[in-house]
Amino acid sequence: MSAAYTYDDENIFAKILQGDIPCKEVYRDEYALAFHDINPQAPTHILVIPTGKYVSIDDFGANASAEEVAGFFKAVSKVAEQEGLLENGFRSIANTGDHGGQEVPHFHVHLLGGAKVGPMVSKKAA
Ligand code: 5GP
Fold it and tell me: What's 111's DSSP letter?
């Protein structure tokens, strides 16, 4: 059985995509928009979001077209290079759902770098 997804058109990233809320944009094309996180957790902290309406990484993988998936991840690579993250590396995170700590229900990938970003998770599983 596959999950059903209900997209909230009022979520903050939908408003950013529509231009209703400003952002510090670093990249935009047909498939993706990238902008600085408002509360950076590393010297470089960029969010990359698809232009399509997908709630989460699993919604995106299950329901986006092959063209959208390719276009999105091509954009992730371009942004990582453009923002100078390739030389020393970076972390990419896609928080998902309640246990994943996802706050905004529009699929996004965090790109964190500019310094060592520390342990992968703050707490080991019990
Ligand atoms: P999540 O917890 O859903 O993976 O991450 C959501 C991220 O969106 C957080 O890191 C938060 O700082 C960021 N964020 C929330 N609201 C805004 C906003 O209005 N503008 C920008 N640029 N980032 C936001």
Answer: E
**Ligand 1 center to 50 CA (angstroms):** 15
Question: What span, in angstroms and rounded, lies between the C-alpha atoms of 29 and 22?
Answer: 17
44-47: long-range contacts, CB 8 A cutoff, minimum separation 24 = 44/83, 44/84, 44/85, 44/90, 44/111, 44/112, 44/113, 44/114, 45/110, 45/111, 45/112, 46/79, 46/83, 46/110, 46/111, 47/13, 47/108, 47/109, 47/110, 47/111
pLDDT 10s digits, 41-93: 999 999 999 999 999 999 999 999 999 999 999 999 999 999 999 999 999 99
Distance (angstroms) between ligand 1 centre and the Cα of 125 equals 25
User: What's the pTM?
Assistant: 0.96
Catalytic residues: 108
Q: What is the DSSP string of 36-83?
A: E-SS-SSSEEEEEEESS--SSHHHHHHHS-HHHHHHHHHHHHHHHHHT
